[in-house]
Write a structure and sequence with these properties.
The complex is a heterodimer. Chain A is α/β, with parallel strands linked by helices. Chain A has 5 helices and 5 strands. Chain B is of the alpha/beta class. Chain B is rod-shaped. Chain B is 46% helix and 19% strand. The chains are: A alpha/beta, B alpha/beta. The interface between A and B is medium-sized, with 26 and 33 residues.
Chain lengths: 126, 622
């Protein structure tokens, strides 16, 4: 399974890459939303992990843009800024989950499984 | 001359004069009253002159009647003999033949006798006199009145007994070629009743050389009463002051006298006649009699006497001043410094006191000011701490984010490692990398915590060499997450050289933090996208470090550039409005300046300058 990770923090990127790799996933990482938009091939991902708080474009900004492009890749938000209202909003808009940092591996893996299960079957609603 | 002068004064001390009765002649009320002052001694005699001055002054002060004053001298001592006496009498009879006198005033025994015997030729006037101490002249002659009570030997002896309680005998010096023995009689009369039983020794009419040798042998428990010594030898007179000087030199015991003029010439003290006071009293009596009061109706008064002690003699004879009776006057006491310079001393004291009060006032003020300054400093530190804590409170969310990043990485790394180990052991290299990442992330988290602790811990400020660039970087790290959360880009444009200032690092960080948080607030409120905050550091001149914090927010309200630094000024919904006020007090306490720029096209710009430390400034020059 190929997972895309967008997070501005290199340490977080390295850690999550290792964890997901150890679980048998393939990870593509990007340091910012614009980097992802420029370089990533959307179709290659089974799931996207987006950090919410990033300089310039936030995870939500990226989410909106992807939705506008008709992207159907399931999206999981990760945030160090735990916010229940934010989570509800994001889920209502079509994301799979909003996970609070630091993320527990069980929760993360369950969310990914859930995302893959639902993946590609419903569009995102901007 | 002096001999005569003193003899004049002393003459009335001898009190053996008899009187005859004379009728008082009535005078018309309108005519001026004539008073004749009859002296014994001639003109040029100081005692007489002083008596006359006091007498004339007193007479002049009488306004009720007009008075003609006459003065004559009988001079029976210098011109003795019946022929002389007759000539004087005939002269005066002719002189005053058609000028009747209303009152005759006499001061000594000889003129009194003359007046009594010859008053008919003056028109039988009343006589106002200093009367001998004994006898009843005034009682037997109703035209005579005045002051009666001879020289008080008793008073002098009382004084001597007070000053020298061990006195057993009194040596009386009474030497005159024409002595008639009056003094001895009077002294004996007065001391007859003395309860102390003093032995009296009279050195009468001795030539000076004999007197001096007799005095030298005086026993220690005696005193000398110097009545007079007008003779040098049986054929020659001597100035009394000269004689007194010899007596003073020769006497091994203190000398007393009843003549005021002898005071200050080696005499210890005495009960002395105040002749000037009595001159005024006689004038008073004379004018009353002249204006019609009958002499017999004027009560006989007592002459004025005062006990006088010479302070220098007290010292000489080593007599404690406590023995001086209360009614005695001490003469020649050296004035104390205060008495001599009273006005200067008081003035000086006033100035000194005023200065002292001023000094004390200034010192108290200084203490108060220091206390107030210390209070102000404590308050400032307290407020600064409170604002730091409050700023950290505002940053809580972003700090949580800041901490969550390394924690996320650590947990992910640890869980990855666990999985790898469970799967049969990862390559050693990878495991090492994982562990290294964990350690690094842990350090990063610890740094966040230590920065946070630094800001919220209450501490005493301390000045150190601080690089302004480092301060800006440290603060930037604190607000990094916040700027991300607020979607504000934070750009740094730092000077390439060190900008070292003498400052308290945490206080300086607080100022930059405060300005930065304000800038982030402003930028994030703005419609201008992207939201931007720029921090610039440079040297505004060789001696100052300059920090500029610029945002592209809505900017400051025109005219509020200075208001923003006032306490409680705030445009935010929350917050006390103390941040910039404290920032200003911190920067000013560091000798720097802080201001808000107005001429900015977009947003706001805050400037801080601080003096660079001399060390680095000079290093740079070198």
């Amino acid at each position: 399974m190929t997972i895309g990770l967008v997070d501005d923090d290199p340490a977080v990127r390295r850690g999550l890459t290792r964890l997901l790799a150890a679980c048998g996933h393939h990870i593509e990482t990007y340091g910012s939303a614009s980097e992802f938009l420029q370089e990533a091939a959307l179709d290659s991902f089974d799931c996207l992990l987006l950090d919410v708080r990033m300089p310039e474009l936030t995870g939500f900004d990226l989410f909106e843009r992807l939705a506008r492009r008709g992207c159907t890749v399931p999206i999981i938000f990760i945030t160090g800024h735990g916010d229940a209202a934010l989570g509800k909003y994001a889920v209502r808009r079509g994301s799979i989950a909003v996970l609070a940092k630091p993320i527990d591996e069980e929760t993360l893996l369950a969310a990914i499984d859930d995302a893959v299960e639902k993946g590609g079957r419903r569009p995102l609603y901007p | 001359m002096r001999t005569q002068r003193v003899a004049h004064c002393l003459a009335w001390l001898a009190c053996l004069v008899t009187c005859t009765s004379v009728e008082v002649e009535a005078q018309g009320p309108a005519a001026p009253k004539r008073i004749l002052l009859l002296h014994q001694s001639g003109v040029g005699e100081p005692l007489r002159a002083r008596f006359d001055v006091a007498f004339v002054d007193a007479v002049r002060s009488v306004n009720s009647i007009s008075i003609d004053l006459y003065e004559e001298t009988v001079e029976t001592r210098r011109f003795p003999g019946s022929q002389q006496s007759w000539l004087v009498k005939e002269y005066l009879r002719n002189k005053y033949a058609d000028r009747p006198i209303d009152v005759i005033v006499t001061l000594a025994n000889a003129p009194l006798t003359f007046a009594r015997l010859n008053r008919e030729m003056f028109g039988a006037p009343a006589v106002v006199a200093i009367l001998p101490g004994s006898g009843r002249i005034a009682e037997s002659h109703d035209y005579i009145t005045g002051l009666q009570g001879g020289a008080s030997v008793q008073g002098t002896i009382d004084l001597a007994a007070s000053l020298l309680p061990s006195t057993r005998s009194v040596i009386v010096v009474d030497g005159a070629r024409d002595d008639t023995g009056e003094t001895e009689t009077e002294v004996e009369r007065q001391l007859k009743a003395d309860p102390r039983g003093l032995r009296l020794v009279f050195l009468r009419n001795l030539p000076l050389t004999d007197l001096v040798s007799r005095l030298a042998a005086t026993p220690a428990d005696s005193i000398v009463l110097f009545v007079r010594q007008t003779m040098r030898s049986v054929s020659e007179d001597i100035d009394q002051f000269e004689a007194l000087e010899e007596v003073v030199k020769a006497s091994p015991v203190p000398i007393f006298s009843q003549v005021e003029e002898f005071m200050g010439h080696g005499v210890l003290g005495g009960h002395v006649w105040r002749f000037e006071a009595d001159a005024r009293r006689l004038a008073d009596i004379a004018t009353r009699v002249a204006s019609g009061v009958e002499a017999r109706d004027v009560p006989i008064g007592h002459p004025t006497y005062t006990k006088i002690v010479d302070w220098q003699q007290l010292e000489r004879w080593n007599i404690p001043e406590s023995r001086v009776p209360h009614d005695a006057t001490v003469l020649f006491r050296p004035q104390s410094f205060f008495e001599t310079y009273e006005r200067y001393v008081i003035g000086g004291l006033i100035i000194f006191t005023a200065q002292l009060m001023l000094i004390v006032g200034l010192l108290v003020q200084r203490v108060w000011r220091r206390r107030a300054e210390a209070d102000a400093r404590r308050t400032r530190e307290h407020l600064a701490h409170m604002t730091r804590v409050s700023a950290m409170g505002e940053l809580a969310a972003s700090l949580a984010h800041e901490l969550n990043q390394p924690l996320t990485a650590i947990r992910a790394n640890a869980q990855a490692a666990r999985r790898l180990l469970a799967a049969g052991g990862p390559p050693q290299g990878e495991l090492r990398e994982i562990l290294q990442d964990i350690v690094d992330d842990n350090k990063r988290a610890a740094e966040v915590i230590s920065r946070m602790r630094e800001m919220v811990t209450k501490r005493t400020p301390e000045r150190r060499h601080v690089d302004v660039n480092e301060v800006v970087l440290a603060v930037t790290k604190i607000v990094a997450s916040d700027s991300i959360i607020r979607q504000v880009s934070l750009d740094l444009d730092l000077a390439s050289e060190e900008l070292v200032v003498d400052a308290d690092r945490v206080q300086l960080e607080q100022v930059v933090l405060n300005l930065l948080l304000n800038a982030l607030d402003a930028a994030s409120m703005s419609n201008r996208i992207p939201h931007k905050v720029v921090i610039v550091t440079n040297m505004s001149d060789r001696n100052s470090a300059h920090v500029i914090i610029r945002d592209n927010g809505p900017g400051l309200k025109t005219g509020s550039e200075w208001q923003v630094f006032e306490p409680f000024y705030t445009t935010k919904g929350s917050g006390m409005g103390m941040g910039l006020s404290i920032a200003r007090s911190i920067i000013e306490a560091h000798g720097g300046n802080i201001w808000a720029a107005t001429d900015v096209e977009q947003g706001a710009e805050f400037h801080v300058t601080l003096p660079r430390t001399a060390a680095t400034a000079s290093t740079r020059i070198a």
